[in-house]
Write a structure and sequence with these properties.
Order of helices and strands: HHHHHHHH
Radius of gyration: 20 Å
Distance between the termini: 20 Å
Oligomer: single chain
Structural class: mainly alpha
Largest sheet: none
Strand content: under 5%
Shape: elongated
Number of helices: 8
Number of strands: 0
Length: about 200
């Protein structure tokens, strides 16, 4: 009887443990996505000013970036529903990598490539945010969902503040190009976490 009672308990513990791992994965994806986006976005206007671009060009680049952060959300949500949360997060990480590399390679005296890079930065953030937020919702029961989401959102906000502060130090001591490449490579750290662990063999 004791063994029979222990078996359901162990079975119940496995889904709970899996849910906690899923929430932790989603939180890491959200934090990394936020750090990369805020770090590169914060330094872009300063980088443009230092290379002689006016407020009009800077405003255009940042406006495109913000539009790409939010306008694709209905399509991103549909993508996450159709193809899954993890593939959507992975697409976001790869898009952030492309954005970082393109921002680093963009000519200092040009606007077009930098605008494209910042557009991709916004899109990568959108993919990561929508996919990972949906993963949090999927993995938490209604009774604790709001509390869990609130805790994750706090971590994301703190990460964004840290990304903004650290980005200035990186650019001051190195360069905008190094910041952009480092951000893109950091986004890649999300990908190994998205691989589902193989179920244990009883």
């Amino acid at each position: 009887p004791g063994g029979a009672a222990a078996a359901p308990a162990a079975g119940a513990a496995r889904p709970a443990s899996s849910a906690r791992r899923t929430v932790a994965l989603a939180a890491v994806a959200l934090v990394v996505t936020q750090v990369v986006m805020v770090a590169v976005m914060t330094m872009t206007p300063i980088h443009m000013r230092d290379h002689g671009h006016g407020l009009g060009a800077t405003g255009l680049v940042i406006s495109l970036h913000v539009a790409c952060m939010y306008l694709p959300s209905p399509l991103t949500g549909a993508l996450a529903d159709r193809h899954g949360r993890r593939p959507t997060i992975a697409a976001g990480a790869l898009t952030l990598l492309a954005a970082g590399l393109l921002a680093a390679a963009a000519p200092a005296d040009g606007v077009a490539l930098l605008a494209l890079a910042l557009g991709l930065l916004g899109l990568g953030w959108n993919l990561g945010l929508v996919g990972a937020s949906a993963l949090v919702a999927d993995a938490t029961p209604p009774a604790t969902r709001a509390r869990t989401q609130g805790s994750v959102d706090l971590a994301v906000a703190l990460a964004g503040a840290a990304g903004g502060l650290s980005s200035g130090l990186v650019v001051a001591t190195a360069s905008y190009a190094l910041l952009s490449v480092a951000g893109g490579l950091l986004a890649l750290a999300i990908l190994p976490l998205l691989v589902r662990p193989r179920p244990a063999v009883a």
